[in-house]
């Protein structure tokens, strides 16, 4: 992940989303990585390498999202504030990476992650809506994720009124490109769905939601999922799409769009990002001062040239030292710090910062539309 966050194309892809849930990230130190404009939370394994879960969410969401629990070095539980949820109840979402079967993780931790997940789902279901998203490393095929014909006799229900039982119902058909029979972990996923009332969202939002999510030399499979409470699947989720595979992972991104009650009245906090940039500008009035400093440091330049002659194999180091010396001398005459503000949507929409107008660039008279189009094509 650390290396990928240095790649402009990767950053461009992930920056399209308000919340990023990344798994199998192999992170160890929080200072290793940042993503501009995002708050970050991460979970690394303490007993063995690999795995790891990283969460990024845009700073304007800080007032609506809380990380409330970390579990068995494989799950991060989030709480989405009820103010922005369609049913006015808190949404508890588990971001998970399920280690593959027979992984060293299970020897080191001696725990059944599916059992822990089910316990947590049952706990948070008493507090609000529950959802699970991530790499569950199990294929479920097209097996039903609900109990078929799950109804009690009507006469029995009328007679014994103390029984409160919510029957499983078939909400919609679930499509899938992965038609193979469920494997062991897939069976566990289906069991959790049947016992907790969660439903698999993949395949219930058109063909784009039913595609494979993983590929390697052995083939393709669907092992990354979004699960949510049966009653909320279509009131919470607007769209679910399995994006195309890319060069950065053997997993395809799972894109989920939620219905949220977010407007400018709720999002009333400024989240502008201020930063200081170095600006280089030459002033002819500094010419004499720069020349004098160059002459004062002439001995240092002579020493560098002598080192270059005596140590030809260290030419890269010599060039670096020369560059550092020139930078040290020149920066005091050419470098100035300029404060830059990346304005948030709240400040733009409410015109909170009127001075923003001063940043509008006025084209020169000779810059025509043809010139602009040619410049765009060149870029």
TrEMBL record:
InterPro entries in alphabetical order: Endo/exonu/phosph_ase_sf, Endo/exonuclease/phosphatase
One family name in Pfam for this protein: Exo_endo_phos
Domain Endonuclease/exonuclease/phosphatase stretches: 6-230
Name of the protein: Endonuclease/exonuclease/phosphatase domain-containing protein
Molecular function GO labels: catalytic activity
